[in-house]
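Example (one chain per record):
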Amino acid sequence: MGAAFVSRGEHEVWRGDLMAVSAATFLDPDGRPFEREVVRRLGAVAVVAVDQDGSAVFVRQFRPAVGVEVLEVVAGTRDVDGEPPETTARRELAEEAGLEADVMEELGSFWNSPGYTDERTTVFLATGLRPCAKAPAGVEERWMAVERHPFGDVLALVADGVLTDAKSIAGLALAERWLSRRAGPAG
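Predicted structure:
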């Protein structure tokens, strides 16, 4: 285990609808104070949706922070107070991709970027997909496109720089492990 760092508190510098920025003070293991800017953000979900034919469902949407459209798995912020992560995942799947899932399995979770934010994303695998009404919730969602790519081609999409979104890459890695275990040993 690493050396002990001690939190000395923080004060909020800015607050928006989905996040807040704080100045946090810590003591290093030698007792010297230091300050860091910390983004406090609501948690999120990512949904790796896999069709019966083995295709993964993606959305391509404009991301203002990087100024381009990004290929991603379905995802969303846990912005409904008290809503369980699976409920958020099901809502986002319908809103963004116009799909419902018979089975929604939690695969794990990860810190998005612990160097500056406390946001944690929970990843789900959605199978038994069927169409439902699409219900875009924001400007970007109104214009997003749904794409399907064979699950076996996902690594090539990453290697070719087509799929660059970290939550999608992490979620697909978790799903691949889960799906290969479910398939059992080759025989």
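Caption: The CA atoms of residues 66 and 165 lie 11 Å apart.
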